[in-house]
Design a protein that fits this description.
The chain crosses the membrane at residues 6-23, 35-56, 62-82, 94-114, 139-160, 181-203, 215-235, 242-260, 266-286. The chain has 308 residues and is mostly helical. The chain has helices at residues 3-32, 40-58, 62-86, 91-109, 135-139, 144-162, 164-174, 176-181, 186-212, 224-234, 239-258, 268-288, 290-296; strands at residues 124-125, 141-142. Helices cover 71% and strands 1% of the residues. The N and C termini lie far apart (63 Å). 44% of the residues are buried.
Length: 308
Amino acid sequence: MTVAQLIPVFAAAIGAATPLMLAGLGELVAERTGVLNLGVEGMMLIGAIAGFACAVDSGLGAWAGLGAGAVAGALASLLFAVPALSLAANQPACGLALTIFGVGFSAFVGQGYVSDSLPGMQPWAVPWLSALPGAGPVLFRQAPVVYAALLLFGAVWWVLARTRTGLILRAVGESPESAHAIGYPVLLIRYGAVMFGGAMAGLGGAYLSTVYTPLWAQNMTAGRGWIAIALVVFASWKPGRLLIGAFLFGGVTILQFHAQTLGWTVPVQLLAALPYLATVVVLVVISRDKRLLQLNLPASLGKGFLPD
C-alpha cells in the first residue's frame, strides 16, 4: 500500500463524507433545541428527488438542484414538526413516519427519472494549494459544493459556540420551560431548528443525486440518514467531533470501491456492510459511557413542550 494508492481514497472519502456532514449538522442543531427527528433519511430522499428533478427539468444544473433539495427538505420537515411540536405527539414516531413517507414519495415521484442523468459538477482545483504534494489532491481538488459545505459547517459552528443565537438554542434544549418563562418563543425556535435540519438533510440528498452520483435511483441514500443521526450521538452533540466522525464514516464507506486497488482480499459484501457495522459498534460503545452522554445530552431531548 503506497501513498499514491491512498491519495484517491482520501480524496473520495471527503466527497462521501459531505452528505453525512450536512445531514448530521442539521440534525445536531435540531437536537440542541431538544427535538429528536428520526426522519432524516426520508428528508434526504425527498431532497434527492426534488433536486434531481429540478436540475433535469429546468436545465439549470446541479446548483439549482441543490437549492431545490434544500427547500424540499425544509418543507418535508414540517410533516414532522406540526404533529411533534404543535400537537406534542411522540417525536420518534413522527420521525419514523416521515422516513416511511419519504421512501415511498421519492420512489413514486422518481419513476419518471430513472433513465435520466446529469453532467454533475467538475472538481475545482484551488490555485497553488492543489499543487501541494499529498494534501493538494486530497483537500484542494474537490467539487465546489464541498468547499461550500465546509464553509457552511464553519458558520454553524460559530453561531452555536460564539453567538447569542447559539446560546438561546442551547437554552431551549436544556430547559424549554425556563426559556419560555423569560420570554423566548420556544415553539418558533424549535420550528426554525427543525426546518434548518430539514434543509440540510435535503441539501445532503440533493448532493447525492446531482453531484456525487448524478442520477436518480430508488433509496439511493442507502441508510445515510440513519448514519447521520448516529453521528450526532457519536459527536456528543459537538460540531467539531461531528466533522471528524463524518470523515471517518466517509472513509469507511469508500473502502469498498478501492479494496482491490489497495490489494485487499476482503469480501465486497463485508466492505459494503462496514459503515452500518461501524454505526452499531460506535453506538454500543458510546451508550456504555453514561457519564459522557448525560454531560452533553440536551436535557429536554425528545420531550414535547406546549406553552401555557
